# Entry
Amino acid sequence: MESTIAIHPESVSHKVVGACPHDCPDTCSLVTTVENGVATRVQGNAAHPQTGGVLCTKVSRYTERTYHADRVLTPLRRVGPKGSGQFEPVSWDIALNEIAARLKPIAARAPEAILPYSYAGTMGFVQGESIAARFFNLLGASLLDRTICSSAGAEGLTYTLGGKVGMKVEFFTESKLIIIWGSNAIASSLHFWRHAQEAKRNGAKLICIDPRRTETADKCHEHIALRPGTDAALALALMHELVVHDWLDHDYLREHTLGWEQLRERALQWPPERAAEVCGITALQIRNLARDYGACRTGQGNGPAAIRLNYGMQRVRGGGNATRAVACLPALIGAWRERAGGMLLSSSGMFPVQRAALQKPELLNGRRPRTINMSTIGDALLHPGDATFGPRVEAVIVYNSNPVAVAPDSAKVVKGFAREDLFTVVLEHFMTDTADHADYVLPATTQLEHWDVHGTYGHTDVMLNRPAIAPIGQARPNTQIFRDLAQRMGVQHPSLSDDDETLCRTAFGDQVDFAQLLEHGFAALPIPDAPYAKGAFPTPSGRCEFFSARLASQGMDGLPDHVPNYEVAGSSSAYPLAMISPPARNFLNSSFANVTSLRDIEGEPLLEICAADAAARGIADGTMVRVFNQRGTYRCRARVSPRARPGVVHGLGIWWRKFGVDGRNVNELTSQRLTDIGRAPTFYDCLVEVALDAA
Ligand code: SF4
# Structure
């Protein structure tokens, strides 16, 4: 939609349809009102069923972010020590020439010493990995393992269901039992929550499983506050109950699953009492949940039952196994038979994205660069280089990410980015903690200023983003910045000349009607209502794979199991509390932490702690505390809160370090250890102690 409405003779107002770029499953359709070239309002598109005219608080204030006084509007060159945030404006010509002069000799000598670092600052395929990937492939730079958020769950799903696939979100409205597992949907999946609310009004029971008593838990009929990292034990005990009571869909198990006999034996090792001990809940809670779930099995007339899983629960050592265990559950009761049954963690694997056409891996020209895991960037930047690791990292190009704030084990990340011999370029909207450590900061456009196209991970519509306004200041799209840099470095290939609208068309090729995208801004994928009613999972066997031969062939357990945390709650007298770090409601990862009105709502960095744990330490609500472990110390204000269960504290994130006390955030405490499957970080597998702050 691009309608033009005359307001008065000198002023022309029009509306432009775009898509929210942020790391949120809802990928809303945005309608931006533009008056005389200025975006004056961003609203939810009422014509897009998944958006329903509603945006979250964060993106409702998008014009505040876009026109923020702190936007980086010119290229900047460092003039002070690394991390000091002291820069001077320079022209694009100077910045590009000087960056090219630094990168060219590295690229000629040891291209793997150049590391791109990017993630979901935008979820768009074009401003994400299109021209950027082509450029780095032409250089032969290191590859980046993009693991920091979801790869444990994603691989867990893939080994079980065949991909990041699930039920269609709109059908949660018709579910009769909704288990919201590891998701604060009110804060992080608002539009799913609308479906759950409607289901509740229609008589559905809502059960929340989460260590934290979230705003979502408040609104559910029941809340099961298990210990972090124990979700697989709970899932296996639920299976135990389904087996011993024969609350099973035997036909579905026989026809559409693989490894049922082995999984059955595994489940029988997990009576509710055993799981209750591990999870820190009662056996009765497990039995009741299993009874509710089992009552929804095929043919009983009580279902369908649906599980909305989110990524919080997979940020522990056993995150991949936990996802596998939960993903097995719907097949046991035949929930997939109905469109309102099954589960949804991510729908992103249902999109026919033409990644190879966008990223052109053939430009590597036979080279096979090493891959560096973004979740261990601290260690990677501090590695001196050797035969196994390859060359020391000499240059990092950061775009769509803020690793100094979001990567685990901050002390090492900061030390790495503070290396005077590391050449760092950051493409950004704002002077983030990472930009403060750059040698050059290049001003990037926001979503209102560029083209992009999006899949989603919460629904199944392809979304197009048209630019609503011209780039602000001297900002350029990421694509253009990489084209310009390639040109200055003498890196040539015809594919670098593809313009952004062409790249938008390339992302889905002939799999999606681009004319429809241009007309409406969205296009639904042709997916059956109940895609796995008759099996046909995208696994090698076409079945839901309880037993994964692919995992077994790697020497791993072919069946899901409970894999205890690295840092098991209660295992350390020095650090007796388990800490998770869920997002503050008005931030999205580290995005929006600099939007004043949103930061004002959040107030300041907080640690939620239950009354008993606070009292045992002499901590009153509102006092300053030190949260510490063997990796570091983080100071913040205590909130004594019923949202925390005994033994577990919540360091709400992700604040930029510069907005925290002492210039630190909660990742000072998290570790670089990785998950069982997916090489992902273990942010929620973290023991700490808390004490009154004497400073
Ligand atoms: S952050 Fe999520 S809920 Fe908010 S506008 Fe974007 S997609 Fe919609």
Remarks:
- The longest helix spans residues 92-109.
- The chain has 24 helices and 28 strands.
